[in-house]
Amino acid sequence: MIKAGIIGSTGYVGEELIRILLRHPQVEIIKMTSKSFSGKVYSDVYQSYLGLCEIECTDEEVEQVAIEVDVIFMALPHGIASKNLNDAVLAQTKVIDLGADFRLTNKEVYEDWYSTEHHNAELLKNAVYGLCEWNREEIRKTSLVANPGCYPTCSILSLAPLLKEGILEKDSIIIDAKSGISGAGRSLNLGTHFAECNESIKAYKVATHRHIPEIEQQLEEISGGTINISFTPHLVPMNRGILITTYGRLTEIVSYEEISTIYNKYYGEEFFIRLMNKDIYPETRWVKGSNYCDIGFVIDERTNRVIIVGAIDNLVKGAAGQAVQNMNIMFGLDERMGLTGIPLVR
Amino acid sequence: MIKAGIIGSTGYVGEELIRILLRHPQVEIIKMTSKSFSGKVYSDVYQSYLGLCEIECTDEEVEQVAIEVDVIFMALPHGIASKNLNDAVLAQTKVIDLGADFRLTNKEVYEDWYSTEHHNAELLKNAVYGLCEWNREEIRKTSLVANPGCYPTCSILSLAPLLKEGILEKDSIIIDAKSGISGAGRSLNLGTHFAECNESIKAYKVATHRHIPEIEQQLEEISGGTINISFTPHLVPMNRGILITTYGRLTEIVSYEEISTIYNKYYGEEFFIRLMNKDIYPETRWVKGSNYCDIGFVIDERTNRVIIVGAIDNLVKGAAGQAVQNMNIMFGLDERMGLTGIPLVR
Amino acid sequence: MIKAGIIGSTGYVGEELIRILLRHPQVEIIKMTSKSFSGKVYSDVYQSYLGLCEIECTDEEVEQVAIEVDVIFMALPHGIASKNLNDAVLAQTKVIDLGADFRLTNKEVYEDWYSTEHHNAELLKNAVYGLCEWNREEIRKTSLVANPGCYPTCSILSLAPLLKEGILEKDSIIIDAKSGISGAGRSLNLGTHFAECNESIKAYKVATHRHIPEIEQQLEEISGGTINISFTPHLVPMNRGILITTYGRLTEIVSYEEISTIYNKYYGEEFFIRLMNKDIYPETRWVKGSNYCDIGFVIDERTNRVIIVGAIDNLVKGAAGQAVQNMNIMFGLDERMGLTGIPLVR
Amino acid sequence: MIKAGIIGSTGYVGEELIRILLRHPQVEIIKMTSKSFSGKVYSDVYQSYLGLCEIECTDEEVEQVAIEVDVIFMALPHGIASKNLNDAVLAQTKVIDLGADFRLTNKEVYEDWYSTEHHNAELLKNAVYGLCEWNREEIRKTSLVANPGCYPTCSILSLAPLLKEGILEKDSIIIDAKSGISGAGRSLNLGTHFAECNESIKAYKVATHRHIPEIEQQLEEISGGTINISFTPHLVPMNRGILITTYGRLTEIVSYEEISTIYNKYYGEEFFIRLMNKDIYPETRWVKGSNYCDIGFVIDERTNRVIIVGAIDNLVKGAAGQAVQNMNIMFGLDERMGLTGIPLVR
Questions:
Q1: Which residues of A fall within a CB distance of 8 Å from C196?
Q2: Taking the complete model, does pTM exceed 0.95, yes or no?
Q3: ipTM of the assembly?
Q4: Minimal CA separation from C54 to chain D, in Å
Q5: Which of B53, B150, B197, B293 is catalytic?
Q6: What contacts B83, CB < 8 A, 6 or more positions away?
Q7: B234-257: average pLDDT
Q8: What domains can be seen in chain B, in order of their start residue?
Q9: B212-234 pLDDT, tens per residue?
Q10: Sequence-separated (6 or more) residues with CB below 8 Å from residue B13
Q11: Do A195 and C12 touch (CB under 8 A)?
């Protein structure tokens, strides 16, 4: 059994990790930390775990936890993981960081977009960007995975095959993203107070969201060229789910079948990526509670663009599920282990 | 492996059965029928099953299906099961009927409340009311289970211990029930059209709902006396969940601890019933997607009433989950098999 | 023109007052105060008012505001109005307090239920309980109205005629209440964080809610006897609306028509109370955004109870709308003035 | 008083017309027709109108209604208005058609996108596209207004000033649209059944929606050149509201202030168009229930695009409200009459 520790266990991503790991046949949760609920039994924080998880939350530091576990999941806001991780910790345990600290390979880009100092630039080169379907081999070998952001996961999975094959104009990419409100986390905020966001949709951080450099970095790496995207995230009055609508100009006239062939080339064998049939588009409910990423597309012949629609559950494939998928890869397990739950459509 | 057939597989209860049974380690789904989607592959009806369930829906009759399977789940409106079941079918397969036809032991009561003729009164005596926690032994022996209604499941589980112990005045019971909208099924109806029920709550079938005789019959059997309840169901703008708020006058002055002891006497060992700590009340989210029934209560000293709050997922413990629990009992399996998923809180 | 000041203008009740008063033909808003948003223009707090209300919020005290206005609306948590009001203020301006400080006539009852000291017991005798349909004459004469709570408004309007006519057993009253989430106000709280209350229903403060003594006091005054109710409020995942389901045992056998006659006797001429036709029950959407209170009922013959369903918009008839109705009465205006907007059903 | 008739009064757009017209100081509703509810009093169809609108729905034809009224609002699916309107009708009454039949000036384009024959091509030249802020003068003179579609209203208002000033590349326009579910109307449909669309977002009719030629036609007329847009509508789980996120490449480098100046040039005096302050983006709640169109934008310097966010209430500015605004113009009334209600934010 793999001994796991979760740093930041009572946020939404932490809770999702526990939901998955408690039913993972090869994992035992040894530690769960929480600054806010230290000393509380988990089922007192979330009544849903009554009888299912009576572990007490502690406020131990990463270094302490590292001694006792084989893998640490860090589900914290950016800026904390980089302070707490070091070679000593990584010598003792594998780490999957669900925050942003190790996603950007360039320290300056990080500091620029996150308006903060990076405390651990030397570790950046150790970190592997944990987009499983694209970086599987590197993930297998590393002890530090930077788990991708929710929007980047769905955006990159949607775009990467077409960019890699060179059929999209690189300066034409527009990503219009829609997220359920759990994406904003559990911290109290007027914008996510029920009567302030229910029955309304809004755009936020238009053209300035911190996931922009993350998406661009990965797409550039995959396609080998400079990519500047326009990216607009929106908040949708629902608990879960991300839908990404992506627009790109085709470099030449291609058929539906040709693009379909490209997607199949990269994803045909991928368990967690499902390619929709023609004229079917993903809906977030079809992936709710699951680790799937659904992708559909259409060629807009009048404008010679391809419009791709991707859907994930922001808390699963967009966070905790992908983290467990990464763990499975890192430990040489079947990648699907613990992640085969069927979507809870409604 | 138990071979299972599902009659009426594309309604909400049917879909929930398939979600559970596909991950049940001892079950193989052999047949799924659907009048409306006959000939369609299941993942064309629900895209969530893409790659997970590519079985084709047929419109075979119960008699045909019975030949090939060990257990039949009937997820149909009332009036159909009683027409299709007979001794020949029951000689070939076990049947769990999720409709109302075999829940009421008295044919006249059925015909009165359902305004229809009962086609199969002689089978009524074979049927066992499948409220697992109370009728486990009979369920084990029968080949025909009448799976309880959603409101009755939560209502009876909430009230039975106190009535059995005789501490409630039998003519004082009031059940105020709230249900998510999936309880109304998948058939199109103005009342469940999104813009007609979203952002609103309403009572319906006040004092006339067909679950009333079902609840009364079971409570009378358990407590041994005549019981007439007032019952008001309400529709709440959410997908899933039933919350039952029950009021009963205490026959004598009892303490919180005494009532707590009673609940523990009946449910202390029950895996699927969770008794809340003092001052904690169930919320439907704590059981979402799971087979749990959560129960909390308070003594309203000023009025000498006990107020009990119970919560279930209407599609799981209130339908498909309890049906699988019944199947597990009928086949001598661990009652929890296939049903240990953790609630999907949000 | 009546000059109005609003103390606590940026909470949900304050905002609703401004929405109504801005379109009231006889009112001019002179002052709006806000501790949190002092110095901000109103349309910066609520973008909906862009171009409609560019008044700056101040943090002036009640005494200062009183000098400049004819009427003050106090939309503050309990405990503040009683500290700020005094004879000097009431000599200068009429006051409608939307908080709880002047609703209970008995200081001890207030202090007991609200766990706080009452700072102004001598003013209690001046205050008139502003349930317009029942206390119109006293309201006309007073300068201090205690605007009823949201649950009490709907509960008392539902029950009062039947209790006054003596056809309900006084110890049999059970009120099961359901409220939209705006009822919890704008202050941040985990319980009203979107992903914590969306898609779920829960009971809270069961048998202990502070509106209990308020309801009992009024019902006792109207019916002339001791009344102890059981009261359970629930939070429903919608922005607005209160639905009250009330159960009472009939003292004798009465017909639907007899009860209908009673309701008509008291409410037949009331503009803001709408009696539903037989077999029609109120839904909160039918009153959304309006000052109506809809009432329907059924006789549960099997139990000899009457079940009454009442619906209001918690922010309008349950708060700001009724406050304006009170103002209209106090100033001798047509009671309906500014309140004839049609419900915004969806 | 203007005598008004509403053809198709019980759909969502019809209901919204009645909500507005009942409070319009210069209008009297004389006729309301409904095929489905003919013979029913309006408050039996919508209980919200109890005591407010007791007019009986008839199934009279347009020709009959035309005799008795000064203005007819047609709130019907496409294909019906063109069959029922003719010179005789237009000689008797003004007509505002809220369907699609008279929006496209080119018969072939209509027949192509709507896959149906146009029955009344000769009337096309009489019709004026009723986008008030751009076609006010023509509207004033016509007796037949084609009321714009919901998506086109918000899209065109967002884009027109910038296209007219020539600062957008004409082949670069992408419109990503999000609509509340009332936009799909009141007809029953699996896609708008509560438990099928709640808690989920989806794209639909990607690159094939019938509002595409309508938007292009108007933008071409305003900008004087060929425009092909990519347009993706999405369904959002909320009752009302449209949010339009528009992307366009700038022909040159311009500043925020320059674009702001352009918007002010066209909309600075427009009552119903509200330009947001810098860094503020519209949210649909800010316009709910009102006739406002809110517009905000940002320059995405990294890609030299402008991203414009527009919001309207699909049933008001996107349908009934704009229709009444058109009526006001046609009858020489103050354009704002009956339309000054304040948004019902929650």
A1: 186
A2: yes
A3: 0.97
A4: 14
A5: B150
A6: B119, B120
A7: 98
A8: 2-126 (3.40.50.720), 151-314 (3.30.360.10)
A9: 999 999 999 999 999 999 999 99
A10: B75, B98, B185, B315, B319, B320
A11: yes
